[in-house]
Amino acid sequence: MTTTTPRLIDTELLSDLKRFGAADVSACFSCGTCTAICPLVDNDATFPRRIIRYAQVGMKDELLSSKELWTCYQCGLCSDSCPTQADPSEFMAAARRYAIASYEPTGLARILYTRPVVGSLVAAAFAAFFAVFMYASHGPQDAASLALFTFIPEGLIHWTGVAVMVVLALAGVFGITSMARRVARSEGVSLPALFGGRAQLSRAAKALWAALGVESLGQRRYRQDCKDDNPIEPLYRRRWLIHALTIWGFLGLFSATILDWGLALIGVKATGTPIPLWYPSRLIGTLAGIALVYGVSMFMVNRVRQVNRAAQFTTASDWLLLVLLWITGATGFFIEVALYLPNAPAWGYWVFLFHVSVAMELMLLLPFTKFAHAMYRPVALFFYALAADKSKQTA
Q1: Average pLDDT over residues 136-163
Q2: Is 296 exposed, middle or buried (0-12, 13-18, 19+ CB in 10 A)?
Q3: Degrees, nearest 5: CA angle 296-302-305
């Protein structure tokens, strides 16, 4: 006689999801229109209908264990075609917010998503803390040259950044581990299946490349999803390009910062001093900054104009992330301009303090905002690639 573990039902799941902005999907009667029209659906991914059903019957663990939750790009085709106007597209977005809050233990993500006024005050408090903390140790403002790291000691910025990165890493690892364990259990994937031998390692490496290189950086499925947009947008306004430039820009600025510190450590240059445009850290930082500011600016414009489904339902937390990203990129350019001016402008010091404070806050809040997609989506795409490879082998 075999026994099965009873499924745990959360009767408050649907009402809790509504706090994260989910539409009232009680109108959904599982007709399957959304699944039929979704360009990302295949034999292994039958969303969004299945995710909606999980919410309706209170299957919280199944919802949080679903890799399909993160493969949705919120194109809006499902909502446009829904005969009962249940708005599955916005439901999927809200379910991802709910998942972000469920994967991390602090409760900060839940506050940012469900209590926008309190969340805004918390964000302002973080920025004020970093600004006051940095300014408390400030030095003189050199009028001859813009000595930024005399005004705010380099060591203070460095070790504060290290502390923020440690918190970011811990929160990220905890969230990714929580999510990956759930999905792996749901998909029947074990450590021996990934690392048990040469064949398993090769399969895992291919899935990792598909998740990180092909999809996350290459945006393959996003580009395919967007190719039939109606109306057809010019390239500079295509959703996949805006999304890609924002991601590439952020990663590029992060890489340029690390590279700049590396050049300083080996004595090539002093941190914060002017260098020619062709220096790797300067060139990467400039191109990445342009990409980031452009991508984030287009996201903001689209939300103001409400040009697509995702832009029509923007939360306060979404705006917080966009504003922090834009300020970080834009103030970085202002600092570069100030460094190359013939006389050291006094405003350069204050822009620098503002830039560092916001950048620290941005990094600290990343695992708790919409940018957490950058952590969780590659994990989901990894399991998706594993499932696709398994299907090919058994076909």
Answers
A1: 86
A2: buried
A3: 145
| Amino acid at position 100, single letter | I
Give yes or no for residue 268 having a pLDDT over 90.
no
Answer whether 342's CB lies under 8 Å from 358's CB.
Answer: no
Burial 199-225 (b: 16+ CB within 10 A, else e): eeeebbeebbebbeeebbeebebbeeb
Residue with tokens 């590659």: 378
Q: Which string of DSSP letters, residue by residue, matches 237-290?
A: G-HHHHHHHHHHHHHHHHHHHHHHHHHHHTTSS-TT----TTSHHHHHHHHHHH
Token pair listed for 121? 């005050």
Distance CA(80)–CA(102), nearest Å, equals 29
Q: Within 13 Å, how many C-alpha atoms sit on residue 84's CB side? A: 14
The pLDDT tens digits of the residues spanning 9-23 come to: 888 898 999 899 877
Is-contact 15 62, C-beta < 8 A? no
Half-sphere exposure of 330 (CA within 13 A, CB side): 11
| Residue the block writes with tokens 């910062």 | 257
- At residue 98, does pLDDT exceed 90? yes
Instruction: Name the band, by pLDDT with cuts 50, 70 and 90, for residue 150.
Output: confident
For the full predicted model, state whether its pTM sits above 0.90. no
Would you place residue 178 in the very low, low, confident or very high pLDDT band (cuts 50, 70, 90)? very high
For residue 302, what are its two tokens? Answer: 């689209």
Q: What distance in Å separates the CA atoms of residue 37 and residue 35, rounded to the nearest whole number?
A: 6
Q: How far apart are CA 241 and CA 229, in angstroms?
A: 13
154 phi and psi angles, rounded to 5 deg = -60, -40
What does the alpha-carbon distance between residue 359 and residue 226 come to, in Å, rounded to a whole number?
Answer: 31
Burial class of residue 347 (count of CB atoms within 10 Å of its CB; 0-12, 13-18, 19+): exposed
Rounded-to-integer distance, Cα 30 and Cα 86, Å? 11
Nearest CA to 63 among 157, 162, 150, 179? 179
194's enclosing H/E stretch is helix 191-195
131 phi-psi bin (left φ>0, alpha ψ -120 to 50, beta other): alpha
Identify the H or E element spanning 181. Answer: helix 154-187
